[in-house]
Amino acid sequence: MQQATDFREESRVLAAVLEPLAEVDFFAVTQFKGWSIDDMLGHLHIFNHAAALALKDGDLFHAFFADMSKIMQGGGSMIDAQRPWVDGLKGRALFEAWRVLSEDVADAFSVADPKARLAWAGPSMSARSSITARQMETWAHGHEVFDLLGVSRVETDRVKNIVVLGVNTFGWAYQVRGLDVPPQMPFLELTAPSGDVWTFGAESDDRVVGSAVGFAQAVTQTRHWTDTDLRALGDGARDWMEIAQCFAGGVAPPPAAGTRFRGDTA
After folding, report:
1. CATH number of the CATH domain containing 181
2. Which contiguous run of DSSP H or E holds residue 21?
3. Most-buried pick from 170, 177, 244, 246 (CB within 10 A)?
4. Do 220 and 246 form a contact (C-beta atoms < 8 A)?
5. What are the tens digits of pLDDT across the range 210-238?
6. Is residue 147 domain-shared with residue 193, that is, in the same domain?
7. 12: CATH
């Protein structure tokens, strides 16, 4: 699957910016919920492992995720839930374990049936969607690192996978909030890193226009949409951008405007 290759490349881009860090740097706190780089790596590592389990056997995944669920249902955070499995692995040792496993996961998904149904925390998903979700999380949480270090990531057209997730989860953003899903998604006109123009949906005066990267930032909630180059034209477009989330789980409010930014722009 091309998506497996894209996940591999996304992981390697993040690994390249992490590689020069000293041990102490992994415990620097990012702009995301007070997570450190180390917390973020543990999160990516455990869910890469979960995706690999789901590809092998759904029962293995459900047994594994049940232990995490118990901690979160008992009031623990996502970070609390990952600690037993991470088992003290931290810093560069965790970084190396994450890097090795990300390559293994890319290898496994590269030969998987894209349409195979895999277990997950919510509804099952296709293998293609599963590995796309891993790319999305790697890209989104990578923002925490790039922002903290004041580095601009070089974007490529593989961001289209994340854009498509954002399009496919249009209805989800409303459903998770108990809101009626609008009958039509606003028209999207997005400029890719290559300069190509990607359009989604039916032509309408209600539209979102801007860069594909800006849209991906909005739907992954790595930026408030007004901190991107997006223009939301029409009430429906603005309503969507205010609540967009392309990831599963409960309601997640986007960051407040001005709170997520690259460090050297502060």
Report:
1. 3.30.1050
2. none
3. 246
4. yes
5. 999 999 999 999 999 999 999 999 999 99
6. no
7. 1.20.120.450
